[in-house]
């Protein structure tokens, strides 16, 4: 396997990825800066993971609370409205169109 002499390759033919560029630039930085950037990145990553974890758990708690607490109430309310409308339509059918039934 022969090594390619990169000094002879024209600049227009060189394609560098962002990762290669960052690695190349990191070689110029002192170790203190490199360690500080690494620590900052790792801390940020840990904080984002923690925020995602707590947000996910919070959404789960809110969703289950809604299902356990609010859905039965909404179903009962809808059933009550349905029964009331059925009663009103039955009264209108029995009394005829002249009299309007009183509302509860």
From TrEMBL:
GO terms for cellular component: mitochondrial outer membrane. It is found in: Mitochondrion outer membrane. The chain crosses the membrane at residues 58-76. Keywords: Membrane, Mitochondrion, Mitochondrion outer membrane, Protein transport, Receptor, Translocation, Transmembrane, Transmembrane helix, Transport. InterPro entries: Tom22 (IPR005683). It is a single-pass membrane protein. GO terms for biological process: intracellular protein transport. This is Mitochondrial import receptor subunit TOM22 homolog. It comes from Strongyloides venezuelensis (Threadworm).
